[in-house]
């Protein structure tokens, strides 16, 4: 795993400063983390890929991604009320009512994922990454924000390093979110192999 504040290889390395810079003028740490994550994702994948927003809430990240040109967006949340609010904003083509602390829904359908302002703000933690990864295609990027409190209390840097092999992902990038919270933006990539059609 790369050291904190050191970008990973490839595109993630060249876009770390751009992702951080997008939040420098934003005083709200939740908004700055979300904008940094959305900007990073926009640098990693084309805007015509399918993206799932895990823990989408009322659709703030969906609106931000839509503003960056993404058009194939799905929002997943445990709250039906928040999903109704998100649907009114018309940023998602599909909404999914599901609890990330439970087993996933369906197979690996999405080409990229994002999860902002969930880790450290709900019961969803590192142990639930496997649920998200199971909904992503092989080699798909997943961009997360993690609150500073969770990052330090759960010792995420060490836990991520340990979990990589078991949960079939690699960590490509970690950076500190600008602002008072000093949370983290984390890029991981799904390394699990997709099941062959008709395979066992």
Task: Kindly list the characteristics that best describe this protein.
200 residues; alpha/beta; Rossmann fold; 7-stranded mixed beta sheet; 7 helices; 7 strands; disordered C terminus
Which stretches are low in confidence, meaning pLDDT under 50 for 5 or more residues running?
1-27, 195-200
Structural class: alpha/beta
* Name of the CATH architecture: 3-Layer(aba) Sandwich
The N- and C-terminal alpha carbons lie at a distance of 32 Å
The strand count comes to: 7
The strands making up the biggest β-sheet line up spatially as 3-2-1-4-5-7-6
Number of domains: 1
Biggest β-sheet strands, sense, barrel? 7 strands, mixed
Helix content: 25-40%
- CATH homologous group name: Vaccinia Virus protein VP39
Tell me what portion of residues adopts beta-strand conformation.
Answer: 15-25%
Q: What is the C-alpha radius of gyration, as a whole number of Å? A: 15 Å
Order of helices and strands: HHEHEHEEHEHHEE
